[in-house]
Design a protein that fits this description.
Strand order of the largest sheet: 3-4-2-1-7
Order of helices and strands: EEHEEHHEEE
Number of helices: 3
Number of strands: 7
Helix content: 25-40%
Length: 155
């Protein structure tokens, strides 16, 4: 995932999946459609999808904050009420993703961001990202807007 900004200056997470063939593109399209129906404050909302452009891209809400891995490495493992709140938010996010029929991939400490409104799941389980800069979607594509610009890695 990469950090990106739209024309208004709003920050987003930008994913550029590697889709080697039409079958992979079709699977991702179905997964992205399901992801658009996920309703949870603990999951980064998918805001734009363009799979017909080269390269394809997905844009989601950016969650500001350190990852769970970063916090545990700095401060040690969670315990007590903090652990309970983290587990409850993570389970709620997982249930929302499953309820929508979306594919989530691995739920790793790098994908859990400890934001201002609590733990959030970011970085959906899309196929590995391809190198390169996203460009405007091709005419007639699912979305005719350009991806946000100003890319820097998000970790």
């Amino acid at each position: 995932m990469r950090e990106a900004y739209d024309e208004s200056g709003a920050r987003h997470a930008l994913g550029v999946p590697w889709l080697p063939d039409a079958d992979a593109r079709a699977r991702l399209a179905a997964s992205a459609e399901a992801a658009e129906h996920v309703r949870s404050l603990s999951v980064a909302k998918l805001t734009a999808v363009c799979l017909d452009g080269e390269p394809p891209y997905l844009v989601s809400e950016y969650i500001e904050g350190p990852t769970l891995r970063q916090v545990v490495e700095r401060h040690g493992p969670y315990a007590g009420d903090d652990l309970y709140r983290l587990a409850a938010a993570t389970a709620t996010a997982l249930a929302a993703v499953h309820e929508a029929g979306a594919v989530h991939g691995a739920l790793t400490p790098e994908k859990v961001v400890l934001g201002a409104r609590g733990p959030g799941w970011s970085g959906w389980g899309w196929p590995a990202t391809a190198a390169g800069r996203p460009r405007t979607c091709t005419p007639g594509a699912a979305s005719s807007s350009s991806p946000p610009t100003g890319r820097t890695p998000v970790d």
